[in-house]
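Appendix B, example 12.
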Amino acid sequence: MRRMLCSLALALLPTGPAWAQGPVPASAPASAAASAPAIAAAMGDAGAALVTRFDGEWFTRLVCEDVRPAQGGLVKGYTYEFKLTIQRGVLDGQYGPPGGEGTVHFQGRVAPDGLLTLRAEGVTGNVDYNVGHVARGTAYRYTLRGRLEAAQGSADRVEVRPCRASFQRL
């Protein structure tokens, strides 16, 4: 019976990029948002595997230092502080209003061993803080890679400029 429930649960779980990128969109049917908890409840002890040791709320500090790119000129550093949530190993957090200028949205997955890969997407603000001094209101994205431990962790930006996100469990 448990094997049948596990197979059913795996068949019903969302797959592909939407699942990897975080919560079900508000535009999705209510049944889609409720499916994972319902599956976990139906699976009993096997459903506990859907909850990871990293689940919960985390304080996040993203620090990007001043840089002087090869093309010259100073690009000012900045610090963003915000809360993110990890649920069933899926990470989601937002600094500033969605779609607003000078914002960032973190989405990603945390592996059982704590390794994490995040996608950061946002909209630029003041040009003095943007590499290449790109225009205010320009969409951007980048990747961070790092690791979480029981109560803290960090991730480093992979592309363009050095930035570090540090995490503290709340």
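Confidence is low (pLDDT under 50) at residues 1-48. The longest strand covers residues 78-87.
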